[in-house]
UniProtKB/TrEMBL annotation:
Organism: Tuber aestivum
Membrane-topology descriptor: Peripheral membrane protein
Function field: Accessory subunit of the mitochondrial membrane respiratory chain NADH dehydrogenase (Complex I), that is believed not to be involved in catalysis. Complex I functions in the transfer of electrons from NADH to the respiratory chain. The immediate electron acceptor for the enzyme is believed to be ubiquinone.
Compartments, as annotated in UniProt: Mitochondrion inner membrane; Mitochondrion intermembrane space
Protein name: NADH dehydrogenase [ubiquinone] 1 beta subcomplex subunit 7
Length: 87
């Protein structure tokens, strides 16, 4: 596991994600935040007002990851000459 900073969550290995029983669709850069969130949800009986800090951190990570992908796609389009690939 790597050192966690506020902007980048700890990266989990495939083995750690398997042990945490994360579905394949959720095994991304934010999985290090999802495991404690799921644990908190389980311990607090999924009460919506509990685990808000963990949920906010996870959702922020997901948003930042989405924005990184959008930026990368825009860079690729700019290199390609602005075409979307559908033309």
């Amino acid at each position: 596991m790597t050192i966690e900073t506020p902007s980048t969550p700890a990266q989990l290995t495939s083995e750690e994600m398997s042990r945490a029983r994360l579905p394949l669709a959720y095994r991304d850069k934010c999985a290090g935040l999802l495991v404690p969130l799921n644990r908190c949800r389980y311990e607090e009986f999924y009460m919506p007002w509990k685990c808000q800090d963990e949920r906010h951190s996870y959702e922020k990570c997901q948003y930042e990851e989405f924005m990184r992908r959008v930026k990368k796609m825009e860079e690729l389009r700019a290199e390609k000459g602005g075409r979307s690939g559908l033309n």
